[in-house]
Structure to design on (545 residues):
């Protein structure tokens, strides 16, 4: 694989959808290769290739995600990306419906840094009915134990149906399921014989020409992000730079900030050009790229240290956008990393306000980022950055109305956590202060529906009602499971006896008994929004405007 290629990035649900398409005989595009004798920078694929079956070297330009996914599933081998080995395990439903519904499954890997969801709020019957309508699912131990589900990799490893039929309870030829299951297993195995058309570029082309083709091909279908295309252009100008970028990416990950490579490339462009768009990436000289990268890495180290030590943001899970890091990095660089106490305090406040308000989540995020970079490059202060936030939202404070209709994906949810942690909020059983770093399933932080979701849906409220940010609190896994689907008026008694009334105040929860009954849920939300807005504003250091 040439250096210009992005790494393997597909998550398990995407692989599941590819398998489903191939199972149904849908087309899966072509593969683009380059046959060359030129010595070009290479990188390993996520799945190893035992030997080269061609007389010359053929580099994979388009189709890596598909081929890697299929290889991992068919061969039953894990993928290796950035030093981590991860299996891709799918299950096949022998009892799938003849007509497949289009079902979007939650990608469990979508945000590995985020706090875990409320386990007890998942209605198992609903999930089970949903899975039964699917042909392929990402493997779970619970589903794998059911008779109708078989591991896809195991089917590919064997041409015999006996063990799968036996496990499914099929005992003889006269079983009406025998023919149906056998046909479906055969249809699944036929995926191995799917033929991809291969387009091979001539060996007379130069690396720069092939890079241009790569960028154009992937731009037309918007298969790659702008950062992936910029990487191709940068590595064409700066050979062997991918290894340098990935080494720094690993360094940041060890510090708790496992960021997409595109963020580091955007930081490079910002430091090299004073703006964040990748449009100029292909026109930058090698010297400008190398100087920009050196300054960008120094700036990003400052940003990580500042966010962790001064702001209390320990990782990207607490950021509404990683673009915020680029601004902090650029500000530190512009000040020569010599900030006065006042400048440090104001930069901290800007970071908290921009994060709480979701500054880079409204409108064109790159345009907003460029506004901040422009202010800094002209010598603007942190106060000037804060003024941009005020201009964007009309005010700096948070009102109870701002919290209406928000859920755990809201930037304010992350600020709630920061606020509660600063107040000293603790788990209601272990008395451990809330943190994203707790180890072990019993203590790992989860967000808990104060009024359990199952309880609310049983009483006529919608899932959206239950997921309201004013119904969410932070506790450990053991406490969450202990609460199950009990009403607050029932489960709180024990906790309050042991922990005292401060247990609720530290997370902005009203304590009036009449608000703890499910019939008062709407009134509870209104009362808590008032308390949340007050606590968050005090944390942010803003007053009513």
């Amino acid at each position: 694989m040439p250096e210009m290629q992005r790494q393997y990035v597909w998550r398990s649900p995407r692989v599941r959808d590819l398998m489903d398409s191939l199972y149904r005989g849908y087309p899966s595009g072509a593969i683009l290769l380059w046959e060359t004798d030129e010595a070009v920078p290479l990188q390993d694929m996520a799945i190893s290739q035992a030997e080269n079956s061609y007389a010359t070297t053929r580099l994979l330009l388009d189709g890596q995600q598909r081929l890697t996914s299929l290889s991992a599933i068919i061969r039953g081998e894990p993928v290796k990306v950035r030093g981590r080995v991860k299996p891709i395990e799918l299950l096949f439903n022998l009892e799938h419906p003849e007509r497949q519904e289009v079902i979007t499954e939650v990608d469990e890997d979508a945000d590995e840094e985020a706090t875990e969801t409320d386990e007890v709020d998942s209605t198992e019957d609903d999930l089970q009915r949903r899975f039964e309508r699917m042909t392929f699912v990402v493997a779970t131990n619970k589903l794998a134990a059911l008779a109708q589900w078989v591991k896809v990799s195991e089917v590919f490893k064997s041409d015999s149906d006996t063990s799968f039929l036996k496990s499914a309870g099929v005992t003889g030829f006269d079983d009406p399921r025998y023919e149906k299951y056998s046909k479906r297993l055969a249809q699944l195995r036929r995926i191995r014989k799917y033929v991809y058309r291969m387009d091979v570029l001539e060996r007379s082309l130069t690396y720069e020409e092939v890079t241009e083709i790569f960028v154009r091909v992937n731009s037309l279908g918007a298969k790659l992000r702008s950062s992936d295309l910029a990487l191709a252009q940068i590595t064409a100008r700066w050979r062997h730079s991918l290894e340098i970028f990935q080494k720094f990416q690993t360094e940041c990950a060890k510090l708790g900030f496992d960021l997409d490579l595109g963020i580091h490339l955007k930081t490079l462009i910002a430091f090299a050009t004073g703006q964040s768009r990748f449009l100029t990436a292909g026109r930058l000289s090698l010297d400008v790229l190398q100087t920009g990268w050196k300054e960008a890495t120094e700036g990003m180290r400052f940003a990580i240290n500042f966010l962790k030590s001064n702001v209390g943001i320990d990782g990207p899970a607490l950021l509404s956008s990683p673009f915020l890091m680029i601004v902090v990095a650029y500000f530190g660089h512009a000040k020569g990393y010599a900030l006065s106490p006042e400048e440090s305090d104001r930069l901290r406040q800007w970071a908290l306000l921009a994060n709480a308000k979701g500054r880079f989540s409204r409108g064109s995020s790159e345009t907003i980022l460029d506004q901040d970079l422009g202010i800094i490059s002209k010598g603007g202060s942190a106060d000037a950055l804060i003024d941009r936030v005020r201009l964007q939202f009309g005010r700096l404070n948070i009102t109870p109305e701002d919290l209406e209709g928000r859920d755990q994906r809201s930037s304010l949810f992350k600020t709630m956590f920061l606020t509660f942690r600063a107040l000293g909020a603790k788990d209601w059983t272990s008395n451990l202060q809330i943190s994203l770093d707790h180890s072990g399933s019993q203590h790992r932080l989860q967000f808990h529906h104060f009024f359990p979701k199952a309880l609310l849906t049983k009483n006529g409220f919608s899932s959206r009602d239950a997921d309201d940010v004013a119904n969410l609190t932070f506790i450990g896994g053991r406490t969450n499971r202990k609460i199950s689907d009990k009403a607050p008026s029932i489960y709180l008694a024990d906790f309050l006896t042991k922990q005292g009334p401060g247990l609720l105040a530290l997370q902005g929860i009203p304590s009036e008994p009449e608000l703890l009954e499910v019939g008062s849920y709407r009134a509870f939300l209104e009362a808590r929004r008032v308390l949340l807005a007050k606590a968050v504003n005090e944390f942010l250091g803003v007053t009513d405007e």
Q: What stands out?
A: The chain has a mean pLDDT of 86. The longest strand covers residues 30-36.
